[in-house]
């Protein structure tokens, strides 16, 4: 599997090649080529073509590396990226336009605007679990913002890495977009270089290493990390509701065999719903993957033997804890990189399976007494990348939203927010920083540069003498400056905003009818 498969022809980049890539990328950016909006659009269209024309090769590469089902690869590695590129091209003209902030008294007569400028040369380090998607989405935004880019795929998916190294220079500008292959040694070498922006997707542990390397040059960083994304079940739901909950949870928990950063990691559930929930998730597993999931073509494999062993041992340690019940699954085989979809009940907060992100097809269910206990449970841990709430009660949902912080939230489903191009995707705290997707990704790869352009004329020269800008200072000048700069607090409205809006609308309709009548 994965990095042990020599058929990929995987070849690491040499230090000399890395040096040349970085130098060429910087030279190209300095030439101004990547800033041209025509160049950006052309590159995005070429990127779309690259994915579309080679989707079969992309699917095959992922299949070789960890037996991901064709359907899942077509959705997550191909279609979602084509949509993201199309969305970016549709709105790029509006995104690149300057913003025009509100001007104060001191800026009157001047031009004030904010330019969206590229950072320069960007490094994109991607993990193995979505080997194309987590390179191509950031790359789309980096190109859209006018940057040059160097991409580092994971060595754990060698077929995918080599395919990217082959396709990128064939479709994209070979002097502006690059692929560097290798393992820890090559990644370390890349992080020693000076970059204008770094994006890293992966574990929190490595994210800290990336941050430390970036600090040497004070380089801005977007981190898409992970953590334990919780599911909170409302006790007012019924056993019958658990059929839908179980399907929606299982559908994304076991997608990509649980190897998704925003997969539901554990469930906080009231005691009376634990059995119905576990039963319905188990029923979903059987309906999706059959009585023996190890034979199902629709279940991906774990990336390699070491990860299989890690997850399997976690299951064994947890099952050895008194009170833990294997509701279904619990089987693993290191030789075939297989871990069965597993549902565990009777799990406590301090259990082995709760010690870190599972990143595999294991769903522990922890009993909690109510919403306050669930909130405290989540708050006692690092801020998660995602939070999933299942409830029909708006006050229950609102209380959790108000008190629990996370990268993103989905109510009555899971994971879907990660596929929305028009909304930001990112973490907070230990689960990451910065945002990707759509305009938010474009903004993450853009420096928002304020420009104040004052005229050199008689009026502006006279304004220089107002407000005590230049010494010698005096009490009169100080009073004058305060008068120009100090703004009173806005008065609170005595009327609700909705009432004001309705009043304005009714007034408009009245005058419209009145004007029409007079015209008659």
Please characterize this protein's 3D structure:
The protein has 520 residues and is an alpha/beta fold. The chain has two domains: 2-225 and 437-448, Aldehyde Dehydrogenase, Chain A, domain 1; 230-426, Aldehyde Dehydrogenase, Chain A, domain 2 (3-Layer(aba) Sandwich), CATH 3.40.309. It is 45% helix and 15% strand. The chain contains 17 helices and 17 strands. The protein has helices spanning 15-31, 37-53, 55-66, 70-96, 133-144, 158-171, 184-191, 204-215, 242-253, 271-289, 305-319, 371-379, 394-403, 438-444, 458-464, 475-485, 497-519; strands spanning 111-118, 121-125, 148-152, 177-179, 197-201, 221-224, 230-233, 266-269, 325-328, 332-333, 338-339, 342-347, 362-367, 386-390, 408-411, 432-433, 446-453. The strands form four sheets. Strands 9-12-13-8-7-14-15 form a seven-stranded mixed sheet, sandwiched between helices. Strand 7 (230-233), helix 9 and strand 8 form a beta-alpha-beta unit. Helix 9 packs across helix 10 (271-289). The radius of gyration is 28 Å and the shape is globular. The termini are far apart. Residues 1-5 have low confidence and may be disordered. It comes from Gonapodya prolifera (strain JEL478). Residues 9-451 form the Aldehyde dehydrogenase domain. Belongs to the aldehyde dehydrogenase family.
Share of residues in strands:
5-15%
Q: Supply the number of structural domains.
A: 2
The whole-angstrom Rg is 28 Å
Determine the CATH superfamily of the largest domain.
Answer: Aldehyde Dehydrogenase, Chain A, domain 1
| Cα shape | globular
Please list the strands of the largest sheet in the order they lie side by side: 9-12-13-8-7-14-15
Family: Belongs to the aldehyde dehydrogenase family.
Domain Aldehyde dehydrogenase: 9-451
Keywords: Membrane, NAD, Oxidoreductase, Transmembrane, Transmembrane helix
Pfam family, one: Aldedh
């Amino acid at each position: 599997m994965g990095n042990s498969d020599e058929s990929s022809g995987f070849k690491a980049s040499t230090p000399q090649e890395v040096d040349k890539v970085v130098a060429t990328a910087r030279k190209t950016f300095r030439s101004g080529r990547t800033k041209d909006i025509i160049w950006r659009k052309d590159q995005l269209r070429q990127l779309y073509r690259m994915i579309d024309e080679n989707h079969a090769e992309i699917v095959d590469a992922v299949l070789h590396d960890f037996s991901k089902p064709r359907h899942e690869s077509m959705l997550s590695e191909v279609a979602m990226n084509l949509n993201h590129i199309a969305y970016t091209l549709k709105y790029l003209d509006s995104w690149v336009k300057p913003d025009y902030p509100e001007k104060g008294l001191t800026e009157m007569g001047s031009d004030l605007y904010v330019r969206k400028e590229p950072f320069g040369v960007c490094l994109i380090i991607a993990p193995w679990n979505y080997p194309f998607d987590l390179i191509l989405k950031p790359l789309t935004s980096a190109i859209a913002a006018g940057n040059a880019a160097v991409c580092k795929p994971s060595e754990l998916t060698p077929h995918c890495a080599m395919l990217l190294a082959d396709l990128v220079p064939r479709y994209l500008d070979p002097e502006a977009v690059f692929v560097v292959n290798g393992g820890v040694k090559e990644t370390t070498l890349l992080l020693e270089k000076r970059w204008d922006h770094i994006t890293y997707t992966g574990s929190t542990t490595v994210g800290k290493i990336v941050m430390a390397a970036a600090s040497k040059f004070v380089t801005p960083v977007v981190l898409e990390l992970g953590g334990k994304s919780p599911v909170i079940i409302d006790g007012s739901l019924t056993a019958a509701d658990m059929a839908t909950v179980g399907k929606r949870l299982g559908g994304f928990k076991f997608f990509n065999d649980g190897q998704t950063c925003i997969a539901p990691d554990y469930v906080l559930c009231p005691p009376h719903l634990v059995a119905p929930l576990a039963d319905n998730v188990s029923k979903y597993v059987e309906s999706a993957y059959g009585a023996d999931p190890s034979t199902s073509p629709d279940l991906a494999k774990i990336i390699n033997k070491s990860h299989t062993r890690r997850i399997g041992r976690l299951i064994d340690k947890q099952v050895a804890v008194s009170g833990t019940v294997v509701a279904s699954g619990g089987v693993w085989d290191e030789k075939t990189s297989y871990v069965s979809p597993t549902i565990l009940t009777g799990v406590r907060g301090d259990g082995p399976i709760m010690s870190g992100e599972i990143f595999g097809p294991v769903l522990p269910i922890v009993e909690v007494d109510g919403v306050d206990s669930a909130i405290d449970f989540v708050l006692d841990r690092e801020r998660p990348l995602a939070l999933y709430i299942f409830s029909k009660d708006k006050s229950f949902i609102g209380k959790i939203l108000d008190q629990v912080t996370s990268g993103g939230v989905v109510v009555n489903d899971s994971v879907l927010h990660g596929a929305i191009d028009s909304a930001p995707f990112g973490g907070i705290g230990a689960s990451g920083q910065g945002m990707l997707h759509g305009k938010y990704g474009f903004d993450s790869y853009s420096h928002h540069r304020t420009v104040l352009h004052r005229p050199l004329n008689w009026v502006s020269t006279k304004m220089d003498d107002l407000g005590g800008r230049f010494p010698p200072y005096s009490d009169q000048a100080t009073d004058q400056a305060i008068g120009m700069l100090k703004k009173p607090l806005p008065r609170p409205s005595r009327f609700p905003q909705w009432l004001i809006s309705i009043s304005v609308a009714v007034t408009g309709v009245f005058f419209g009818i009145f004007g029409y009548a007079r015209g008659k």
